[in-house]
């Protein structure tokens, strides 16, 4: 296949998304940016399928294992016979490429200097095996990774939004572009095809940095801020939500795994129509590692694992744990921006204790209070 742009293979994209995809040549490095709901993950999957048609190995990478599972499910409906795409975590691919004992650093990542030297030493030895890499939520990957894959990959396409950085080892769009080289292409995609106007408006209250995206046209109900006497009360409300919306995928975003385990116990004893699912990144049991994210029902995920996901209904729990944090702090605002934008139709922000958390004050007109 030549370096010319491929035709659109699949019809499930908006005109703007098709234009974005068609604007990306099959050679070179590229950074695609866009706000939540613009379809970056879907475009990343389509981009990987297009690149796989060149005959090179193609990988769709993410930092999060849970997002990897979602991307794998997306690819199953897109992959062209004879041109497979593998969905993997960044850690998993690096271990596969450089060996299980590749040197690490104290932050849990790899020694980028050593691996970059190794990649430079083997440059051009087996060019046909050099892969195309597509990275989703690329802002959560260290800049050292991009300096490395500039040498270790045939092409790198990064989908990112620097307003959604939730990790300490993250990269800005400029840092990613600089690391990949001056010839790196930049493309922006707009629009919000996920949230209602009311949910997006609340997210904008917490938006920090960058250009504020336009609000979507689709309308819905105002998000709810609800007080709970404890996790049992919270579980009862989640059960009621599931009963009213039996076809919904309900994402419960928790602040700690201890709280998640307690909440799971209440839900399992509640008689839900479908067994609730819990994702724990530290778990070894498949039940808490491999989830069915397309199935209706309740899924409990930690804040750190929510990036890139979406649900019909989202319940954000434990907001009182942020009460002592400066409500203007960029980290806090970014965290709530990410969590809120996971919701497609309905959103609940739950709190416990005697006083409404400071960062949930002053939301008149944006939420209903219960």
Automatic annotation (TrEMBL):
ATP-binding found in the keyword field: yes
Domain of life: Bacteria
GO molecular function: 3'-5' DNA helicase activity; ATP binding; DNA binding
Record GO biological process: recombinational repair
KW Endoplasmic reticulum (keyword) present: no
Keywords: ATP-binding, Helicase, Hydrolase, Nucleotide-binding
The protein, known as: Superfamily I DNA/RNA helicase
């Amino acid at each position: 296949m030549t370096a010319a742009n491929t035709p659109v293979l699949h019809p499930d994209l908006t005109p703007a998304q098709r234009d974005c995809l068609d604007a990306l040549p099959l050679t070179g490095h590229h950074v695609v940016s866009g706000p939540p709901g613009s379809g970056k993950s879907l475009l990343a999957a389509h981009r990987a399928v297009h690149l796989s048609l060149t005959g090179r190995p193609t990988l769709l990478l993410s930092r999060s294992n849970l997002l990897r599972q979602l991307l794998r499910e997306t690819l199953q409906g897109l992959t062209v016979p004879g041109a497979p795409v593998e969905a993997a975590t960044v850690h998993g691919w690096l271990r596969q490429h450089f060996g299980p004992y590749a040197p690490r650093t104290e932050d849990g990542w790899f020694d980028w200097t050593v691996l970059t030297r190794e990649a430079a030493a083997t440059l051009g030895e087996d060019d046909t095996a050099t892969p195309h890499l597509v990275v989703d939520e690329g802002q959560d990957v260290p800049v050292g990774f991009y300096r490395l894959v500039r040498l270790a990959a045939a092409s790198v396409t990064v989908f990112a939004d620097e307003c959604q950085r939730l990790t300490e080892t993250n990269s800005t769009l400029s840092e990613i572009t600089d690391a990949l080289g001056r010839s790196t292409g930049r493309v922006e995609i707009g629009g919000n095809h996920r949230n209602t106007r009311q949910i997006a408006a609340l997210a904008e209250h917490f938006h920090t940095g960058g250009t504020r995206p336009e609000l979507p046209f689709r309308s819905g109900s105002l998000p709810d801020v609800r007080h709970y006497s404890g996790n049992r009360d919270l579980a009862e409300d989640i059960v009621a939500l599931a009963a009213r919306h039996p076809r919904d995928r309900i994402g419960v975003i928790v602040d700690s795994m201890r709280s998640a385990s307690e909440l799971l116990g209440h839900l399992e004893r509640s008689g839900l129509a479908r067994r609730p699912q819990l994702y724990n990144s530290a778990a070894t049991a498949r039940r808490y590692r491999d989830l069915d994210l397309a199935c209706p029902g309740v899924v409990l995920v930690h804040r750190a694992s929510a990036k890139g996901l979406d649900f019909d209904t989202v319940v954000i729990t434990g907001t009182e744990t942020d009460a002592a944090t400066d409500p203007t702090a960029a980290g806090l605002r970014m965290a709530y921006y990410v969590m809120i934008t996971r919701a497609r139709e309905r959103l609940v922000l739950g709190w416990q204790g005697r006083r409404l958390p400071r960062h949930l004050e002053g939301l008149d007109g944006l939420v209903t209070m219960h």
